[in-house]
Amino acid sequence: MSKCEQCLARQFNAMKSMTHEELKRVSACKTNRFYKKGEVIFDEGEALNGVFCISSGVSKLTKLSANGKDHTVKLLSKGSLIGQRAMISDQRANLSAIAITDVELCFVPKDEIVNTLHDNNDFSFDLMKAFAKELKHSEDNLVNMAQKTVKNRLAEALIYIHDNFGVDDLGYLKVVISREDYANIVGTATESAIRILSQFKKDGLISMKGKAIKIENLQKLKFIE
Questions:
Q1: Are 53 and 15 in contact (CB under 8 A)?
Q2: What is the pTM of this model?
Q3: Beta bridge partners of 32
Protein backbone atom coordinates (compact mmCIF):
# COMPACT_ATOMS: atom_id res chain seq x y z
CA MET A 1 0.00 0.00 0.00
CA SER A 2 1.56 3.31 -1.08
CA LYS A 3 1.84 6.23 1.33
CA CYS A 4 -0.22 9.34 0.55
CA GLU A 5 2.81 11.62 0.90
CA GLN A 6 4.54 9.60 -1.85
CA CYS A 7 1.50 9.08 -4.11
CA LEU A 8 1.55 10.81 -7.50
CA ALA A 9 -2.25 10.58 -7.84
CA ARG A 10 -2.80 13.28 -5.20
CA GLN A 11 -1.10 15.83 -7.48
CA PHE A 12 -4.29 15.76 -9.59
CA ASN A 13 -6.66 16.80 -6.79
CA ALA A 14 -7.02 19.08 -3.75
CA MET A 15 -4.95 16.71 -1.60
CA LYS A 16 -1.83 18.26 -3.15
CA SER A 17 -2.40 21.17 -0.73
CA MET A 18 -2.20 18.98 2.37
CA THR A 19 0.87 19.31 4.55
CA HIS A 20 3.28 16.41 5.03
CA GLU A 21 1.87 15.73 8.49
CA GLU A 22 -1.74 15.80 7.22
CA LEU A 23 -0.84 13.34 4.46
CA LYS A 24 0.79 11.04 7.00
CA ARG A 25 -2.43 11.04 9.06
CA VAL A 26 -4.54 10.33 5.97
CA SER A 27 -2.17 7.54 4.95
CA ALA A 28 -2.47 5.96 8.40
CA CYS A 29 -6.26 5.76 8.31
CA LYS A 30 -7.03 5.14 4.62
CA THR A 31 -7.97 1.74 3.21
CA ASN A 32 -7.36 0.35 -0.27
CA ARG A 33 -10.32 -0.97 -2.22
CA PHE A 34 -10.42 -2.86 -5.52
CA TYR A 35 -13.32 -3.06 -7.97
CA LYS A 36 -13.60 -5.21 -11.07
CA LYS A 37 -14.88 -3.78 -14.34
CA GLY A 38 -18.64 -3.19 -14.02
CA GLU A 39 -18.76 -3.29 -10.22
CA VAL A 40 -20.59 -0.55 -8.33
CA ILE A 41 -18.38 1.60 -6.08
CA PHE A 42 -21.38 3.28 -4.50
CA ASP A 43 -25.04 3.76 -5.43
CA GLU A 44 -27.08 6.92 -5.84
CA GLY A 45 -28.77 7.63 -2.51
CA GLU A 46 -26.07 5.92 -0.46
CA ALA A 47 -24.65 7.65 2.63
CA LEU A 48 -20.91 8.19 2.21
CA ASN A 49 -18.64 8.28 5.23
CA GLY A 50 -15.54 9.43 3.37
CA VAL A 51 -14.05 10.11 -0.03
CA PHE A 52 -12.51 7.88 -2.67
CA CYS A 53 -9.31 8.73 -4.53
CA ILE A 54 -8.66 6.77 -7.72
CA SER A 55 -5.17 5.23 -7.72
CA SER A 56 -5.58 3.47 -11.06
CA GLY A 57 -8.28 2.67 -13.60
CA VAL A 58 -11.34 4.54 -14.87
CA SER A 59 -14.81 4.90 -13.36
CA LYS A 60 -18.00 6.68 -14.39
CA LEU A 61 -20.55 8.72 -12.50
CA THR A 62 -24.16 8.00 -13.51
CA LYS A 63 -27.57 9.47 -12.72
CA LEU A 64 -30.80 7.49 -12.83
CA SER A 65 -33.36 9.37 -14.94
CA ALA A 66 -37.13 9.44 -14.43
CA ASN A 67 -37.58 6.73 -17.08
CA GLY A 68 -35.26 4.37 -15.21
CA LYS A 69 -32.29 4.78 -17.56
CA ASP A 70 -28.78 5.58 -16.35
CA HIS A 71 -27.21 8.72 -17.78
CA THR A 72 -23.41 8.88 -17.72
CA VAL A 73 -22.46 12.24 -16.23
CA LYS A 74 -18.67 12.04 -16.18
CA LEU A 75 -15.67 9.76 -16.62
CA LEU A 76 -12.98 9.80 -13.94
CA SER A 77 -9.41 8.51 -13.89
CA LYS A 78 -6.27 8.45 -11.73
CA GLY A 79 -6.17 11.20 -9.13
CA SER A 80 -9.89 12.00 -9.18
CA LEU A 81 -11.74 12.36 -5.88
CA ILE A 82 -15.19 10.81 -5.71
CA GLY A 83 -17.92 11.53 -3.18
CA GLN A 84 -16.46 14.66 -1.62
CA ARG A 85 -19.51 16.85 -2.28
CA ALA A 86 -21.98 14.43 -0.67
CA MET A 87 -19.67 13.88 2.28
CA ILE A 88 -19.07 17.57 3.00
CA SER A 89 -22.74 18.55 2.54
CA ASP A 90 -23.89 15.63 4.73
CA GLN A 91 -26.21 14.49 1.95
CA ARG A 92 -26.63 11.12 0.36
CA ALA A 93 -24.82 10.51 -2.92
CA ASN A 94 -26.56 12.22 -5.83
CA LEU A 95 -24.83 9.95 -8.36
CA SER A 96 -23.68 6.35 -8.65
CA ALA A 97 -20.02 5.47 -9.24
CA ILE A 98 -19.23 2.41 -11.37
CA ALA A 99 -15.90 0.92 -12.46
CA ILE A 100 -15.41 1.04 -16.25
CA THR A 101 -12.10 -0.80 -15.99
CA ASP A 102 -10.57 -2.60 -13.04
CA VAL A 103 -10.15 0.17 -10.47
CA GLU A 104 -8.02 0.65 -7.36
CA LEU A 105 -9.14 3.34 -4.93
CA CYS A 106 -8.06 4.70 -1.58
CA PHE A 107 -10.90 5.39 0.85
CA VAL A 108 -10.29 8.23 3.33
CA PRO A 109 -12.68 8.52 6.31
CA LYS A 110 -14.80 11.64 6.63
CA ASP A 111 -13.32 12.88 9.92
CA GLU A 112 -9.82 13.20 8.49
CA ILE A 113 -11.03 15.25 5.51
CA VAL A 114 -13.27 17.51 7.61
CA ASN A 115 -10.52 18.17 10.16
CA THR A 116 -8.14 19.15 7.36
CA LEU A 117 -10.77 21.47 5.88
CA HIS A 118 -10.93 23.32 9.20
CA ASP A 119 -7.16 23.52 9.64
CA ASN A 120 -5.79 24.01 6.12
CA ASN A 121 -7.03 27.02 4.13
CA ASP A 122 -5.15 26.01 0.96
CA PHE A 123 -6.82 22.60 0.97
CA SER A 124 -10.25 24.20 1.52
CA PHE A 125 -9.69 26.66 -1.33
CA ASP A 126 -8.51 23.97 -3.75
CA LEU A 127 -11.56 21.87 -2.90
CA MET A 128 -13.82 24.89 -3.58
CA LYS A 129 -12.10 25.36 -6.95
CA ALA A 130 -12.80 21.71 -7.73
CA PHE A 131 -16.49 22.20 -6.87
CA ALA A 132 -16.60 25.29 -9.12
CA LYS A 133 -15.08 23.28 -11.96
CA GLU A 134 -17.68 20.54 -11.48
CA LEU A 135 -20.46 23.14 -11.55
CA LYS A 136 -19.13 24.58 -14.81
CA HIS A 137 -18.98 21.08 -16.26
CA SER A 138 -22.65 20.54 -15.31
CA GLU A 139 -23.67 23.89 -16.79
CA ASP A 140 -21.80 23.16 -20.02
CA ASN A 141 -23.55 19.79 -20.26
CA LEU A 142 -26.96 21.46 -19.94
CA VAL A 143 -26.09 23.93 -22.71
CA ASN A 144 -24.76 21.15 -24.93
CA MET A 145 -27.91 19.09 -24.50
CA ALA A 146 -30.09 22.08 -25.42
CA GLN A 147 -28.09 23.59 -28.27
CA LYS A 148 -25.92 20.93 -29.92
CA THR A 149 -26.82 18.04 -32.16
CA VAL A 150 -26.32 14.43 -31.06
CA LYS A 151 -23.64 14.08 -33.76
CA ASN A 152 -21.77 17.08 -32.36
CA ARG A 153 -22.07 15.82 -28.77
CA LEU A 154 -20.76 12.38 -29.74
CA ALA A 155 -17.80 13.95 -31.54
CA GLU A 156 -17.06 16.00 -28.41
CA ALA A 157 -17.27 12.86 -26.24
CA LEU A 158 -14.65 11.13 -28.42
CA ILE A 159 -12.40 14.20 -28.27
CA TYR A 160 -12.83 14.44 -24.48
CA ILE A 161 -11.76 10.82 -24.02
CA HIS A 162 -8.83 11.35 -26.42
CA ASP A 163 -7.62 14.51 -24.67
CA ASN A 164 -8.14 13.34 -21.08
CA PHE A 165 -7.24 9.65 -21.21
CA GLY A 166 -4.92 9.36 -24.21
CA VAL A 167 -4.33 6.56 -26.72
CA ASP A 168 -2.51 3.24 -26.70
CA ASP A 169 0.53 2.27 -28.79
CA LEU A 170 -1.67 1.62 -31.83
CA GLY A 171 -3.49 4.94 -31.52
CA TYR A 172 -6.77 3.56 -30.13
CA LEU A 173 -8.47 5.40 -27.28
CA LYS A 174 -7.17 3.98 -24.00
CA VAL A 175 -10.63 4.08 -22.45
CA VAL A 176 -12.80 1.49 -24.17
CA ILE A 177 -16.48 1.88 -23.34
CA SER A 178 -19.62 0.34 -24.75
CA ARG A 179 -21.81 1.93 -27.39
CA GLU A 180 -24.49 2.14 -24.70
CA ASP A 181 -22.13 4.21 -22.55
CA TYR A 182 -21.49 6.59 -25.45
CA ALA A 183 -25.25 6.90 -25.92
CA ASN A 184 -25.75 7.64 -22.22
CA ILE A 185 -23.00 10.27 -22.23
CA VAL A 186 -24.59 12.24 -25.08
CA GLY A 187 -28.23 11.57 -24.18
CA THR A 188 -29.46 9.48 -27.09
CA ALA A 189 -30.56 5.93 -27.94
CA THR A 190 -27.88 3.27 -28.33
CA GLU A 191 -29.00 2.66 -31.91
CA SER A 192 -28.45 6.34 -32.75
CA ALA A 193 -24.95 6.30 -31.24
CA ILE A 194 -24.07 3.18 -33.28
CA ARG A 195 -25.42 4.78 -36.46
CA ILE A 196 -23.45 8.01 -35.93
CA LEU A 197 -20.22 6.16 -35.12
CA SER A 198 -20.68 4.14 -38.32
CA GLN A 199 -21.10 7.40 -40.25
CA PHE A 200 -17.93 8.81 -38.64
CA LYS A 201 -16.11 5.67 -39.78
CA LYS A 202 -17.50 5.97 -43.31
CA ASP A 203 -16.36 9.60 -43.45
CA GLY A 204 -12.84 8.63 -42.40
CA LEU A 205 -13.02 10.43 -39.05
CA ILE A 206 -12.53 7.28 -36.96
CA SER A 207 -11.71 3.61 -37.35
CA MET A 208 -12.96 0.80 -35.12
CA LYS A 209 -11.78 -2.62 -34.01
CA GLY A 210 -14.45 -4.24 -31.88
CA LYS A 211 -15.30 -1.74 -29.15
CA ALA A 212 -11.97 0.08 -29.58
CA ILE A 213 -12.03 3.40 -31.46
CA LYS A 214 -9.18 5.30 -33.12
CA ILE A 215 -9.58 8.94 -34.12
CA GLU A 216 -8.21 9.29 -37.64
CA ASN A 217 -8.95 12.98 -38.22
CA LEU A 218 -9.09 14.97 -34.99
CA GLN A 219 -9.40 18.37 -36.66
CA LYS A 220 -12.41 17.43 -38.79
CA LEU A 221 -14.05 15.76 -35.78
CA LYS A 222 -13.77 19.08 -33.90
CA PHE A 223 -15.88 20.83 -36.52
CA ILE A 224 -18.73 18.33 -36.74
CA GLU A 225 -22.09 20.14 -36.79
A1: yes
A2: 0.75
A3: 106
